[in-house]
Amino acid sequence: MASGNRVVTYMGPKKLELQTFDYPKLVDPKGNKTPHGAILRIVTTNICGSDQHIYRGRFPAPKGMVLGHEMTGEVIETGPDVHFIKKGDLCSVPFNVSCGRCRNCKERHTDTCENVNDEADCGAYGFNLGGWQGGQSDYLMVPFADWNLLKFPDKDQAMEKIRDLTLLSDILPTGFHGCVQAGVKYGSTVYIAGAGPVGRCAAASAHLLGASCIIVGDSNSERLKLVKDAGYQTVNVASETPVADQIEAILGVRDVDCGVDAVGFEAHGNGPGAGEDPAAVLNTLIEVVRENGAIGAPGIYTAGDADAIDKDAKAGTYRIDFGKAWIKSPHISAGQAPIMHYNRDLMMAILWGRMPYLGKLLNVEVVPLEKAPDAYKIFDQGSPKKFVLDPHGSVAKAA
Ligand SMILES: NC(=O)c1ccc[n+]([C@@H]2O[C@H](COP(=O)([O-])OP(=O)(O)OC[C@H]3O[C@@H](n4cnc5c(N)ncnc54)[C@H](O)[C@@H]3O)[C@@H](O)[C@H]2O)c1
Ligand SMILES: [Zn+2]
Ligand SMILES: [Zn+2]
Q1: Are residues 165 and 179 in the same domain?
Q2: Mean pLDDT across the stretch 112-139?
Q3: What is the Å distance from ligand 1's center to 261 Cα?
């Protein structure tokens, strides 16, 4: 058994440190034994836009917290109450920590598990949500392992497709969930706000669901280029031309059937040089999604952002055009994505070659764990890459 565990810790805004913690034990954050848990040797662990909210000091997190919630790993130890997952299994870890026993889990809402966080019905690794240690590390303890882990059917086949399969722990199911919430189906027209990794996964998901016209909006030209190169339409939200006009130029009408918010509370406004405006994306979606259409909002909103632009935003109350929205009979859904709801089916889609466009669109770059601070910095500056950490050099070895 290994002795130490290298981890990426948050030490304050834009300050990360690689530290060495103890090798994980089968215990939960309160010190209770977790015989239902497993220890994983991490194969890939991705950096997410959600980590960036923490990195920038905009999403509250304690100093010394281990970051990371997008893990794939090999099981190297199982507790006595783990019956089906075995040592040697290569598994994707849904970022939601869930118990599989409460009402919400039984109803497949693993995003709102009642038993893994005393503060709120919702837990995750590497957030201030239940104290579950993050997985940007060499090793990780996963509780309720039989329930939480998604086992890949064949390890060699999985390692061949690991750059796509690594997206199953969060952003691909999250993008897909945003599209499902937005009612995307065959023939739908879709506007996705945000060309970050989640927005690009939402575009790939809309494609898989059979959408007709897929439009992605952002101000980041490098990210929009990836979208365009994959064959989707783009809108530059920083242009003088309003988003609805740009949609009309593409589609011939000013509205779409479905809207996805893949941005969240750190949104900037529309138009040249617009500053931060946390309500901008939701208000744009309310404007451009047609009557009776739907909006899926996986982008994160929080009441804990001390650096928000005004008192309302600091409290998480935004200036949403609800009166304008109401008359259109809209459907708006938000929250964490219940990863387990989608991860198996999306794994099958990847393994059977149904999402061949994912690789180019997501533009994954694999780097060693010790490069995490550099990767966070580059991603924070709007890089068009999705950074994946490879603590043990497993991806390099498999290639
Ligand atoms: N609900 C969930 O379960 C879940 C899971 C993963 C990520 N998220 C959240 O999804 C969001 C996106 O994640 P990401 O990794 O792609 O982040 P990201 O920060 O890399 O990308 C966000 C993009 O939005 C763009 N943007 C800003 N304002 C905009 C506007 N008005 N219109 C269009 N685009 C605008 C930015 O330029 C940026 O490219 C984040 O808030 C993240 O925390 C939620
Ligand atoms: Zn994530
Ligand atoms: Zn539960």
Answers
A1: no
A2: 97
A3: 8
Examine the domain organization and report whether 380 and 319 are in the same domain: no
Ligand nearest to the backbone CA of 300: 1
Nearest residue by C-alpha to atom 43 in ligand 1: 50
Tell me the pairing of strands 364-367 and 386-389.
Answer: parallel
Say how many C-beta atoms besides its own lie within 10 A of residue 2's C-beta.
12
Q: Is the pLDDT of residue 1 over 60?
A: no
Q: What is the CATH number of the domain that holds 264?
A: 3.40.50.720
**What residues pack around ion ligand 2 (CB closer than 5 A)?**
48, 50, 70, 170
Mean pLDDT of the chain: 97
CA of 48 to the centre of ligand 2 (A): 4
- Residues of the domain holding 116: 4-170+338-398
Residue range 30-53, pLDDT digits in tens: 999 999 999 999 999 999 999 999
Measured from the CA of 379, which atom of ligand 1 is nearest? 20
The contacts found for 87-91 with CB under 8 angstroms, 24 or more apart, are: 88/155, 89/149, 89/151, 89/152, 90/43, 90/151, 90/152, 90/155, 90/158, 90/159, 91/40, 91/149, 91/150, 91/151, 91/152
Q: How confident is the model at residue 399 (pLDDT cuts 50, 70, 90)?
A: confident
Do 319 and 183 share a structural domain? yes
Q: Are residues 156 and 71 in the same domain?
A: yes
State which ligand 1 atom lies nearest to the alpha carbon of 171: 6
End position of a domain, from candidates 287, 318, 334: 334
The number of the ligand 1 atom at minimal distance from the alpha carbon of 300 is: 41
- Please tell me the number of the ligand nearest to residue 283's CA: 1
Same domain, 104 and 160: yes
If pLDDT is split at 50, 70 and 90, which confidence band does 3 have?
A: confident
d(CA 101, ligand 3 centre) in Å: 5
Tell me if 362 CB under 6 Å of ligand 1: no
Whether residue 239 sits in one domain with residue 255: yes
The residue assigned the tokens 């809309």 is 206
Q: Is 336 in the pocket of ligand 1 (CB under 6 A)?
A: yes
CA of 18 to the centre of ligand 3 (A): 32
In this prediction, residue 2 carries a pLDDT of: 67
The number of folded domains in the chain is: 2
Same domain, 352 and 229: no
- CATH code, domain carrying 96: 3.90.180.10
Residue pair 53/35 in contact (Cβ under 8 Å)? The answer is no
d(Cα 209, Cα 207) in Å, to the nearest integer? 5
